[in-house]
Task: structure prediction
Amino acid sequence: MRFTGLIYMLLMSVLLAACSNSNQINGKSMKTAHKSVAFIKERLPLNQRVEFEVAYWSLRNKLSNDAEFLNSIDHKTATDIIDLAKAHFAKDKADGVKQLAHYENWEQMIARQIEQRGEQDQTAADPKDKKGYPRVDYKMHAM
Result:
């Protein structure tokens, strides 16, 4: 009976240890990193999703070497990724990177990204959504 209880306690502690990293990025490979990012992004509040996504992809563009990128994001939370991207933004802004010249600060860049996404959503048209589609209420004739 004591042995069963010990095994149960061991299994529960392993399970809790495995589940505690669900809000961190798994940087073992690019595939696991993308899966982790998608999982974290789905669970973020709406106001942080765009910022997290922009931060992740700006880090990816900055660190083109896969191993370096994976090491820099491994075991990081969404807040850590955003903070890291803000630090890179500030450094690049100070260095005079042309792509960042349009933005005063990180928040302005995020606001512009949200605005652009809103414009895309309004102009996006589904090609399957056609006007003049066939009617589904058929005329019923006696045969």
Summary: The radius of gyration is 24 Å. Residues 45-115 form one domain.
